[in-house]
Amino acid sequence: MITDRLLNFSNAQDLTQAPVGQDTPSTNAIDFSQARDFGPTEGFKVWVEFPNTPSPNSGRLDVKIQVSTDNQNWTTLEELPGIDLSLIGPGSPFAVRAKPAFSNTPYRYMRLTYNPAQAMTSCTVTAGINLDVPAQIAYPKNYVA
Question: InterPro entries given for it (predicted)?
Protein backbone atom coordinates (compact mmCIF):
# COMPACT_ATOMS: atom_id res chain seq x y z
CA MET A 1 0.00 0.00 0.00
CA ILE A 2 1.36 3.39 -0.95
CA THR A 3 0.60 6.03 1.65
CA ASP A 4 0.90 9.79 1.66
CA ARG A 5 2.34 11.51 4.74
CA LEU A 6 -0.22 14.30 4.34
CA LEU A 7 -3.04 11.76 4.65
CA ASN A 8 -1.80 10.10 7.85
CA PHE A 9 -3.52 10.57 11.20
CA SER A 10 -0.74 8.82 13.13
CA ASN A 11 2.74 7.60 12.27
CA ALA A 12 3.92 5.10 14.91
CA GLN A 13 2.07 7.10 17.58
CA ASP A 14 2.91 5.77 21.05
CA LEU A 15 -0.20 4.83 23.04
CA THR A 16 1.57 3.70 26.21
CA GLN A 17 0.74 7.02 27.92
CA ALA A 18 -2.88 7.03 26.69
CA PRO A 19 -5.25 7.20 29.67
CA VAL A 20 -7.50 4.16 30.03
CA GLY A 21 -11.11 4.91 29.17
CA GLN A 22 -10.36 8.32 27.65
CA ASP A 23 -10.06 9.40 24.03
CA THR A 24 -6.52 10.22 22.93
CA PRO A 25 -6.48 12.22 19.67
CA SER A 26 -4.31 11.18 16.75
CA THR A 27 -1.09 13.11 16.23
CA ASN A 28 -2.37 14.73 13.05
CA ALA A 29 -5.69 16.14 11.91
CA ILE A 30 -6.20 16.14 8.15
CA ASP A 31 -7.15 19.54 6.73
CA PHE A 32 -9.37 19.03 3.69
CA SER A 33 -9.01 22.66 2.58
CA GLN A 34 -5.42 21.90 1.53
CA ALA A 35 -4.66 20.32 -1.83
CA ARG A 36 -4.76 16.54 -1.38
CA ASP A 37 -4.79 13.92 -4.12
CA PHE A 38 -7.56 11.46 -3.31
CA GLY A 39 -7.66 10.05 -6.83
CA PRO A 40 -10.61 10.05 -9.21
CA THR A 41 -13.67 11.10 -7.15
CA GLU A 42 -13.81 7.85 -5.20
CA GLY A 43 -14.61 7.46 -1.55
CA PHE A 44 -11.66 6.81 0.68
CA LYS A 45 -11.01 4.33 3.46
CA VAL A 46 -9.64 4.83 6.95
CA TRP A 47 -7.01 2.28 7.95
CA VAL A 48 -5.32 1.53 11.25
CA GLU A 49 -2.35 -0.77 11.69
CA PHE A 50 0.11 -1.68 14.41
CA PRO A 51 3.80 -1.58 13.38
CA ASN A 52 4.57 -3.98 16.26
CA THR A 53 2.44 -6.29 18.36
CA PRO A 54 0.70 -4.41 21.21
CA SER A 55 1.45 -5.53 24.75
CA PRO A 56 -0.49 -6.79 26.52
CA ASN A 57 -2.14 -8.24 23.47
CA SER A 58 -5.51 -8.64 25.10
CA GLY A 59 -8.37 -6.25 25.61
CA ARG A 60 -9.75 -3.71 23.19
CA LEU A 61 -8.89 -0.44 21.58
CA ASP A 62 -11.79 1.75 20.50
CA VAL A 63 -11.29 4.08 17.53
CA LYS A 64 -13.49 7.03 16.58
CA ILE A 65 -13.50 9.17 13.45
CA GLN A 66 -14.08 12.80 14.40
CA VAL A 67 -14.70 15.89 12.27
CA SER A 68 -14.52 19.61 12.93
CA THR A 69 -15.07 22.92 11.19
CA ASP A 70 -12.54 24.85 13.32
CA ASN A 71 -9.99 22.25 14.57
CA GLN A 72 -11.15 22.97 18.15
CA ASN A 73 -14.65 21.52 18.57
CA TRP A 74 -14.89 17.90 17.47
CA THR A 75 -17.94 15.79 16.61
CA THR A 76 -17.79 12.01 16.40
CA LEU A 77 -18.73 11.03 12.87
CA GLU A 78 -18.37 7.30 13.37
CA GLU A 79 -17.32 4.85 16.07
CA LEU A 80 -15.47 1.91 14.59
CA PRO A 81 -15.86 -1.57 16.05
CA GLY A 82 -13.54 -2.14 19.01
CA ILE A 83 -10.23 -3.67 17.98
CA ASP A 84 -9.56 -7.03 19.64
CA LEU A 85 -5.84 -6.71 20.36
CA SER A 86 -5.40 -10.49 20.64
CA LEU A 87 -5.91 -10.72 16.87
CA ILE A 88 -3.05 -8.32 16.08
CA GLY A 89 0.33 -9.79 15.21
CA PRO A 90 3.16 -9.62 12.67
CA GLY A 91 1.10 -11.50 10.07
CA SER A 92 -2.02 -9.39 10.56
CA PRO A 93 -1.14 -5.82 11.51
CA PHE A 94 -4.30 -4.22 10.09
CA ALA A 95 -7.11 -3.60 12.50
CA VAL A 96 -9.50 -1.29 10.66
CA ARG A 97 -10.49 -0.91 7.05
CA ALA A 98 -13.48 1.40 7.16
CA LYS A 99 -15.19 3.62 4.64
CA PRO A 100 -16.56 6.50 6.71
CA ALA A 101 -20.08 7.73 6.10
CA PHE A 102 -20.30 11.46 5.53
CA SER A 103 -23.05 13.84 6.43
CA ASN A 104 -24.35 16.81 4.45
CA THR A 105 -22.49 19.20 6.75
CA PRO A 106 -19.18 20.36 5.26
CA TYR A 107 -16.29 19.64 7.61
CA ARG A 108 -12.77 20.91 7.16
CA TYR A 109 -10.81 18.71 9.57
CA MET A 110 -10.76 15.00 10.38
CA ARG A 111 -8.90 13.06 13.06
CA LEU A 112 -9.03 9.77 14.93
CA THR A 113 -9.17 9.12 18.65
CA TYR A 114 -7.89 6.02 20.40
CA ASN A 115 -9.38 4.72 23.65
CA PRO A 116 -7.59 1.73 25.25
CA ALA A 117 -9.55 -0.55 27.61
CA GLN A 118 -6.40 -1.21 29.67
CA ALA A 119 -2.96 0.30 30.19
CA MET A 120 -0.56 -0.55 27.39
CA THR A 121 3.11 -1.33 28.08
CA SER A 122 3.96 -1.34 24.38
CA CYS A 123 1.71 -0.05 21.62
CA THR A 124 2.27 2.10 18.56
CA VAL A 125 -0.34 2.81 15.93
CA THR A 126 -0.12 4.09 12.37
CA ALA A 127 -3.29 5.27 10.65
CA GLY A 128 -4.43 7.26 7.66
CA ILE A 129 -6.78 7.46 4.73
CA ASN A 130 -6.30 5.90 1.33
CA LEU A 131 -8.34 4.83 -1.68
CA ASP A 132 -7.84 1.19 -0.83
CA VAL A 133 -6.01 -0.94 1.69
CA PRO A 134 -4.29 -4.29 1.32
CA ALA A 135 -6.42 -7.35 1.71
CA GLN A 136 -5.54 -10.93 0.91
CA ILE A 137 -8.40 -12.82 -0.70
CA ALA A 138 -7.98 -16.58 -1.04
CA TYR A 139 -9.86 -17.86 -4.07
CA PRO A 140 -10.50 -21.59 -4.56
CA LYS A 141 -8.24 -23.24 -7.12
CA ASN A 142 -9.83 -23.78 -10.49
CA TYR A 143 -7.94 -26.89 -11.53
CA VAL A 144 -7.49 -30.52 -10.60
CA ALA A 145 -4.01 -31.48 -9.48
Answer: Bbp16 (IPR048922), Galactose-bd-like_sf (IPR008979)
